[in-house]
Design goal:
This protein is mainly alpha-helical. Helices cover 49% and strands 12% of the residues. It is built from 20 helices and 14 strands. It is globular.
């Protein structure tokens, strides 16, 4: 849908800005037109060929609330998105936009759904500036018309020697890649973008913050009072129901403190070790209705894809099965990678199928089953009991991971059926598997 279909009269507060459609006009058309950008923190095409991303999911929830369909218009740059709102090409922009004071003077925004910090990003074996003074003389490039460019402009008032280049032809992710390729010294990116992309390019570092925490929000025309109110009303319910925190956990909850050495080794072993076992993961996944890449990520967490791995506690093999579990799953040789992978997959499938209430749905069912694989179903039962006592949802991973660490606290475990457990271990276990899965998916997608 082009700008001619959506354009209305210009805004008296901003002569360059078209007012856009009223909420009633949007309802009458039955479709919400949304401007976004292609990135892992906003909107992208997943491995199944379908659009996904945190902005997409939130927009779809809002549109469902209004009984509307959604049309996404993917723009190449922040400048194009802002111009698109000015020219009424879309009803709102959901693109990871920072709600800066300058933008608030020109546009309406919905409620903030996430806080981010602008970070200077460089390559660890190149430069590591820790102050604005140390940025002077470096080759820096940022997105044109971005909050990054605006922040650098403010800093230049006190540091006149500070210089940088702006681009509207490259995305933030492309600039991060350029830094990784040593084509630039540094760029600037929001902390959530940095967290994700450091998993792909582990040599990147963020030696300094360029700003305090800033809010992300949807942008719309300054004349869209009714649409702004509708977004705010919906968001109150969306946030209050826990759906926002569930969404953030889905896309960001598995990022722990960055481990450069660990991720770098994983990327190398995807080429060196994973091909030796890939067929086993695929076959076992098909047999037990599990994601092969999830099994691969779990096996990496367990053994780093070493078929002969042995723990001092007696677990062994690529899936690190205990002797009792191996016997129950029909595994005669835990050091046989095929037997171990099929045994681990069978056990995980049984946990998902037989050990949880039907009220547990995906992806929570997978995370709870993985935690049970690590700590045992008995202690997971205790965690669910404890969650209920604390008014939390025993069927949601985001709640269970809050209470699991309490299983090692005597004030809590003394009143539980199965007693003490190292409850932080399954939390880290699931976080690591989710992070490894994310990296494996990205590396294999790039290889294709």
């Amino acid at each position: 849908m082009g700008s001619g279909l959506l354009a209305a009269c210009s805004s008296p507060d901003n002569p360059k800005q078209e007012a856009g459609r009223s909420l009633q006009e949007i309802r009458d058309a039955g479709k919400l037109v949304v401007l976004t950008r292609n990135a892992p923190t906003t909107y992208y095409i997943g491995r199944d060929g379908e659009p996904t991303g945190p902005e997409l999911e939130m927009v779809n929830a809002f549109a469902d609330h209004l009984g509307l369909e959604v049309e996404f218009l993917v723009k190449d740059s922040i400048q194009e998105i802002i111009s698109g709102i000015e020219q009424a090409e879309g009803d709102l922009a959901a693109a990871g936009l920072t709600m800066t004071p300058v933008r608030q003077e020109a546009f309406h925004f919905g409620p903030s759904y996430q806080d981010v910090t602008q970070q200077v990003v460089c390559r660890r074996d190149n430069v590591q500036p820790e102050s604005v003074t140390e940025l002077v003389g470096l080759e820096i490039k940022v997105i044109a018309a971005s909050s990054y460019a605006a922040q650098l402009a403010r800093l230049r008032q006190e540091h006149p020697e500070l210089s940088w280049e702006e681009t509207d032809s490259l995305s933030t992710e492309q600039l991060l890649y350029s830094v990784w390729q040593r084509e630039l010294d540094c760029t600037v990116a929001d902390s959530n973008i940095v967290d994700i992309n450091r998993r792909y390019f582990p040599e990147l570092i963020a030696p300094m913050n360029l700003s305090r925490a800033e809010p992300l929000a949807w942008m719309m025309s300054s004349q869209q009072d009714e649409l702004q109110s509708a977004v705010s009303d919906w968001f109150d319910e969306y946030q209050g129901s826990g759906r926002l925190s569930a969404l953030q956990d889905k896309y960001y909850g598995f990022f722990t403190e960055f481990d450069y050495v660990d991720i770098r080794k994983l990327i190398r072993r995807i080429d060196q070790r994973l091909p030796n076992y890939n067929d086993y993961f695929k076959t076992a996944g098909a047999k037990y209705q599990l994601s092969p890449l999830l099994l691969a990520a779990q096996a990496y967490q367990e053994s780093h894809w070493r078929a002969d791995a042995v723990s001092p506690t007696g677990v062994r093999g690529i899936m690190m099965l205990t002797q009792n579990t191996a016997r129950a799953m029909g595994v005669s040789n835990r050091l046989d990678p095929r037997q171990s992978i099929f045994g681990g997959a069978k056990y995980l499938a049984q946990l998902k199928r037989d050990r949880f209430d039907e009220a547990v749905t995906e992806p929570d069912l997978t995370w709870l089953a993985l935690a049970s694989y690590n700590i045992g179903r008995a202690h997971m039962h205790d965690a669910q009991v404890l969650a209920r006592r604390q008014g939390l949802d025993p069927h949601r991973w985001r709640d269970i991971k809050q209470v699991l660490p309490l299983l090692s606290d005597k004030r809590y475990y003394k009143d539980l059926k199965y007693g003490y457990a190292r409850g932080m271990e399954p939390v880290r276990y699931v976080q690591r598997i989710r992070e490894y899965l994310h990296v494996i998916q990205n590396e294999l997608a790039q290889a294709q």
